[in-house]
Input
Amino acid sequence: MRQLRRLLPCVLTALLVLLIGCRSEPKTFNISGTVTFKGKPVPAGEIRFDPDAAKQFDAMQGYAAIKDGEFDTSKDGRGIVPGPYVIRILAFDGKPAREFPLGRPMRSEYELRDTLDPEKGTLTIVIPPEGAIP
Output
C-alpha cells in the first residue's frame, strides 16, 4: 500500500503531461499575394492579419513583409488559421532614409476585413488613394 502511495503522484504527473501534450492547436496555412497602389506594385511594406475581435475571433496574428508588390507568409512571416481578419497594410516607397528604413509612407495605414481560409490562399490587394472610398 505504501508503494502505491509513492507511485500515485508519478502516475498522475505523467497523465497530466500527456493530456497537456495532446492538446491540438488549429492548423495554420500560409497566404501570399500582391499589393498595388496607384496601379504600381508597393515597393516595400508590411501586411498584418489581425484576428477580427468585432467577430469575437481569437487567434494569433499573421504577418509578412511586402517586397516589390508581393508578400508571402511562408517566406517572411507567420501563417494564419482560418477565420475573419482585419488586414492592415503599411506601404512605403522603398527608398530608405535615416528615419525611414523602408522608405517614406505612401499613405496612412490601409485596412480591410476579410474571412480567410486555405482556399483563398492568394490575395490581390489594391490600396486606394488617401480618402477614396474602396
Notes: The chain has a mean pLDDT of 86. The chain has one domain: 32-127. The radius of gyration is 22 Å. Residues 17 and 23 are 10 Å apart (CA to CA).
